[in-house]
């Protein structure tokens, strides 16, 4: 394996963006659950996110969702976040909750609906200018439930036209990242169901448009690390949404279903030049903590990414290349297994302590009294959550 000290040295490059909505109330598709201490404002969401970064050193930025996180003064919000020790990151649009979007948003055949959706994204770009955010992330619930319900080719054409207008409004340092999901909520077809569709649309837009890969948005058995490799090879991987899934849904803690898959993904990220602050690939969480506590859930998530990144950095690439050239299947596979099965948790605890961080961030959070304090302080008001 690679030298542990050398591998851990590269961990300084690891930064994981956390989403503001992960700290609000969420639930299954049938019920949203309230919990004590849930934020009532975007400022309280930022405070919770800052606690995750304080204890882990891994989460320096927070993604915002519009309109859930709308405020009157975004410059003031940026200053407030900086005072907490975090920055404002990706701006996420929302065209999946208004009644007007029942039959689509950027793909709608209704020109007025399409105009509304485009204008919403232009508003998001204005917010990006105020916050200093670099990425506009678009996920669309657009699709159909029945064959013949709409012209599926026409919807792709309208999507391309809508994206072109949004893309043209981006600043020089801003990017558009287009997410995909193979189904849900549409049951017959989804307008951006796979990486190929997202790639085709972003390729047509230009060099400031990229694909966002959500690790939970694939059919069972999909080789996600192959997609990661291909998008890196093509120069079109812009960002990750890290989460996990067991059956049809997603948004569970990353690595919960298949830690080895997360390891394999991070290996391709590192091998393909997608790791590090200068790589252009943003690593983000996209999770909803329904049963577990929200702040510990985010801490667990970023630690899972750190652990699998550390293991991926231990892959002996020289030995791997030699085995691959020799056609030695078992030796090549053993190189992967040696790195994956290495327990890096003790050395990661030492790594954190050497940087003034708690060896066990989850235990430190529990001992901090922070949860008890916010439970007492956040009584009353409207809790943030889906639809808020």
Which descriptors apply to this entry?
single chain; 388 residues; alpha/beta; two-stranded antiparallel ribbon
Account of the protein in words:
Its EC number is 5.3.1.14. By secondary structure, this protein is an alpha/beta fold. It has 14 helices and ten strands. The mean pLDDT is 95.
Q: How far is the N terminus from the C terminus?
A: 49 Å
Shape: globular
Instruction: For the largest sheet, list the strands in their spatial order.
Output: 1-2-3-4-6-8-9-10
Largest sheet: 8 strands, parallel, barrel
The secondary structure category is alpha/beta
Number of helices: 14
Topology order in helix (H) and strand (E) letters: HEHEHEHEEHEEHEHEHEHHHHHH
Q: Roughly what is the average pLDDT, rounded to an integer?
A: 95
The Cα radius of gyration reads 21 Å
Low-confidence stretches: none
Helicity range: 40-55%
Approximately what portion of the residues adopt beta-strand conformation?
5-15%
Number of strands: 10
Protein name: L-rhamnose isomerase
Keywords: Cytoplasm, Isomerase, Manganese, Metal-binding, Rhamnose metabolism
GO molecular function: L-rhamnose isomerase activity
InterPro entries: L-rhamnose_isomerase, Rhamnose_iso-rel, Rhamnose_isomerase, Xyl_isomerase-like_sf
């Amino acid at each position: 394996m690679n030298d542990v000290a050398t591998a851990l040295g590269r961990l300084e490059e690891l930064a994981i963006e956390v989403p503001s909505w992960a700290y609000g109330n969420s639930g299954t598709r049938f019920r949203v659950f309230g919990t004590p201490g849930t934020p009532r404002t975007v400022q309280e969401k930022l405070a919770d996110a800052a606690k995750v970064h304080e204890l882990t050193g891994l989460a320096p930025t927070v993604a915002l969702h519009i309109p859930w996180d709308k405020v009157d003064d975004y410059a003031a919000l940026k200053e407030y976040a900086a005072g907490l020790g975090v920055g404002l990151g990706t701006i996420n649009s929302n065209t999946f909750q208004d009644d007007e979007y029942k039959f689509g948003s950027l793909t709608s055949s209704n020109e007025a609906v399409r105009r509304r959706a485009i204008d919403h994204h232009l508003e998001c770009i204005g917010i990006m200018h105020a916050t200093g955010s670099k990425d506009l992330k678009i996920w669309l619930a657009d699709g159909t439930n029945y064959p013949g319900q709409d012209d599926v080719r026409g919807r792709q054409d309208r999507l391309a036209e809508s994206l072109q207008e949004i893309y043209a409004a981006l600043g020089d340092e801003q990017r558009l990242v287009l997410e995909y999901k193979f189904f849900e909520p549409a049951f017959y077809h989804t307008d951006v169901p796979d990486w190929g569709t997202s790639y085709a649309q972003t390729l047509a837009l230009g060099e400031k448009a990229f694909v966002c890969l959500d690790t939970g948005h694939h059919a069972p058995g999909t080789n996600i690390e192959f997609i990661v490799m291909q998008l890196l090879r093509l120069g079109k991987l812009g960002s990750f949404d890290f989460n996990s899934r067991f059956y049809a849904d997603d948004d569970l803690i990353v690595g919960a279903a298949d830690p080895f898959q997360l390891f394999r993904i991070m290996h391709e990220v590192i091998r393909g030049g997608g790791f590090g602050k200068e790589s252009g690939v943003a690593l983000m969480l996209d999770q909803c903590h329904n049963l577990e506590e929200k702040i510990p859930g985010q801490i667990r998530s970023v630690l899972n990414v750190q652990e699998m990144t550390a293991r991926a950095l231990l892959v002996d690439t020289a030995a791997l290349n030699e085995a691959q050239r020799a056609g030695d299947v078992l030796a090549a596979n053993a190189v992967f297994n040696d790195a994956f099965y290495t327990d890096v948790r003790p050395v990661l605890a030492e790594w954190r302590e050497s940087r003034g961080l708690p060896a066990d961030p989850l235990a430190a959070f529990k001992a901090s009294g922070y949860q008890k304090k916010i439970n007492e302080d956040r009584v009353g008001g409207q809790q943030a959550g889906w639809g808020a």
